[in-house]
């Protein structure tokens, strides 16, 4: 992996990437999305399931479709669906803490969730101090990954060239979009596959440990 020596930035997704997909967090968020659509918009189960599938395919998130088609206030939606006790599902991860510490890159979060939810997750995991910046859905004008504009916001803000970034995410669509911009990519999770990913690992700790084991020539010093 000679390309690893060019990496200066680690761009990390949050949900189902920094913690396992079977933790229950994303399932709880999914239930909150369903409840929002049922309670606030009066939709039945079949319509909810159909629209969520349609919006995920079109926008990578349900919120964007609801805002465009039903005039839903993004802030009302975000506050509702992320109102859950994160600490009930996630515990401190010392292994993740140690592997992040071993890497010399600058590290940021790019998430389609809120800053408040992000901070709650990072606090529960015990790894918040590793990330210099968080870019949430508000920072990307409520347009999340895999839209190119979401990645551009981060690249322009930090600032960095795409080829100097390693992007880690659990979504093949998000990984594909990052790769098309010129980033190196890691697909996290055993549930999906991606031909575009440079690495595919079951857990984010596996990728970070592998990179760290390659020595200073792989994870370049700044």
Question: What does the model show?
Answer:
By secondary structure, the protein is of the alpha/beta class. It folds into 2 domains: 2-20 and 90-213, Rossmann fold (3-Layer(aba) Sandwich), CATH 3.40.50; 25-81, Orthogonal Bundle (DNA polymerase, domain 1). The chain has 9 helices and 6 strands, in the order E-H-H-H-H-H-E-H-E-H-E-H-E-E-H. Helix 2 packs across helix 3 (62-70) and helix 5 runs parallel beside helix 9. The longest helix is centred in the first third of the chain and has 17 residues, at 25-41. The mean pLDDT is 93.
For the biggest β-sheet, the strand order reads: 3-2-1-4-5-6
Q: Mind telling me the CATH class of the largest domain?
A: Alpha Beta
Helix content: 40-55%
Total DSSP helices: 9
Indicate the CATH architecture of the largest domain. 3-Layer(aba) Sandwich
Mean pLDDT: 93
Q: Can you count the beta strands?
A: 6
Order of helices and strands: EHHHHHEHEHEHEEH
Shape: globular
């Amino acid at each position: 992996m000679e390309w690893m020596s060019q990496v200066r930035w680690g761009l990390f997704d949050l949900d189902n990437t920094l913690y396992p997909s079977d933790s229950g967090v994303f399932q709880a968020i999914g239930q909150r999305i369903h409840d929002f659509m049922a309670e606030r918009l009066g939709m039945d189960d079949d319509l909810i399931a159909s629209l969520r599938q349609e919006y995920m395919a079109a926008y990578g998130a349900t919120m964007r479709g609801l805002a465009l088609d039903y005039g839903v206030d993004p802030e009302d939606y975000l506050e509702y669906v992320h109102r859950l006790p994160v600490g009930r599902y996630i515990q401190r991860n010392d292994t993740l803490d140690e592997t992040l510490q071993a890497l010399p890159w600058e590290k940021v979060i790019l998430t389609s969730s809120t800053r408040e939810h992000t901070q709650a997750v990072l606090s529960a995991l015990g790894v918040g101090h590793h990330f210099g910046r968080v870019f949430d859905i508000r920072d990307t004008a409520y347009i999340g990954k895999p839209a190119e504009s979401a990645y551009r916001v981060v690249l322009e803000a930090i600032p960095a060239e795409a080829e100097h970034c390693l992007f880690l995410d659990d979504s093949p669509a998000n990984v594909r979009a990052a790769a098309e911009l010129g980033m190196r990519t890691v697909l996290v999770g055993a549930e999906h596959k991606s031909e575009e990913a440079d690495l595919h690992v079951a857990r984010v700790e596996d990728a970070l440990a592998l990179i760290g084991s390659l020595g200073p020539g792989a994870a370049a010093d700044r």
